[in-house]
Amino acid sequence: MTPRRKTRAGRCTDRRLPTSRELGYAPELAILAAIESAVDLALVALVAAQPELHPNADGRDLVSTDAGAAADAVIGRAQALVLAIAAYRAALHDQHDDWPF
Predict the structure, then answer these.
(1) Position 100 in a domain
(2) Which of 48, 58, 76, 100 has the fewest CB atoms below 10 angstroms from its CB?
């Protein structure tokens, strides 16, 4: 898979969908790609809905409401899920050196 880099909102970019050949080896990559896309959309929506989550000039978030704190917790867990999916994809690759991804 293509390397990913995090944006300020914590979203990963430069992600691509699995190819049909990759799905032939590991069909679960289809739904995992869909989950990653859904997480990206959720992160953007949460930050848009909770403006207090935008970083300040010093780079720190000032979360002052219960909704902001809850959204911040969701963002952290969502980012952990994306990392877990990346680890799974890497483990698949390491397990099968002849796979095309």
Answers:
(1) no
(2) 58
